[in-house]
Amino acid sequence: MRVLVTGGAGFIGSHFVRQVIGGAYAELADAEVTVLDKLTYAGNEANLEPVAHDERLRFVQGDICDPSLVSDLMKGTDLVVHFAAESHVDRSITGAADFVLTNVLGTQYLLQAALDAEVGKFVHVSTDEVYGSIEDGSWPEDHPLLPNSPYSASKASSDLIARSFFRTYGLPVCITRCSNNYGPYQFPEKVIPLFVTNLLDGHKVPLYGDGLNIRDWLHVDDHCAGIQLVAANGRPGEIYNIGGGTELTNRELTTLLLEATGADESMVQPVEDRKGHDRRYSVDITKINSELGYSPRVAFDQGLRNTVEWYRENRAWWEPLKQRAALATNR
Ligand code: NAD
After folding, report:
1. Ligand 1 mutation pick, 6, 12, 149, 307, max ligand atoms within 8 A of CB
2. Other C-beta atoms within 10 Å of 48: how many?
3. Is 51 inside a domain boundary?
4. pLDDT of 331 over the 50 cut
């Protein structure tokens, strides 16, 4: 089986690749994996270092917006797992062009190349943010899409284009919509790694608005296991929510991170709320649970403890990333 993983040097994609090459998924035990990644600020070859010498892994630095490269790589591919995206909401608020280019146009190029190469399955990794914000209850997969940020709007657009390639051409596309991921190797701009690394360095953490925005937390290992189930047995043309089952306000999450790093309330710096900040996300995972047997396995308290520990022990991974980010913002 030949698998093309886009964005495989990012946070979630690299976890998926490490799991595949490490033999975590029986269906992909002999898979040969090609990673296509542009290595933007968020992509990092070090994320693949634990499996870099395995002969079943090939790394290609390139852009999903390069149709001839994408078409070459697609030949002979059985399965595409498409993670590549501009993924940070705050960056989309300050400049949305790259989000539209990569997330929308890049996805269309991949879908067209997959169709031309008669790929067996295309898993498009989307997000729960495409649904918008929900006060009570949880979204089923057929809920209308009402994205609020340029990031989520670009993801909703690519999600719909992916669906159209199934409806129009019969390309066997599955779409996954997951909640907020956490775990090791997450770029230190997202809330958990940003707060943990700030606190480990004795710096304050910026808490948006009243801190009462609610997110459902999903360990990256559970997310990737869910993607693998969809890749193996998901019905073409279907959408599957993937959730973690732990909803917390940002304030509650911050308190847990203060405790985990031995810091106190004085380290919290309230800041002006994010523009258009969604209040609450919550996905209904009945469908993937009943059809494919998915349920999250990593208990949040254990997963968070291990994640904090990983950042404590892997300064060499994140310190250069934060230094580079600081230089870029001071420029
Ligand atoms: P990430 O930002 O850590 O990684 C994205 C990767 O894509 C990077 O390696 C980057 O170099 C690569 N990339 C970006 N533009 C590219 C291009 N034009 N061509 C080739 N490669 C390119 O993101 P992540 O957190 O790992 O997210 C992976 C996917 O999961 C994304 O599609 C994201 O929208 C989705 N998602 C993430 C979360 C989350 O909590 N992190 C939640 C829901 C959905």
Report:
1. 12
2. 23
3. yes
4. no
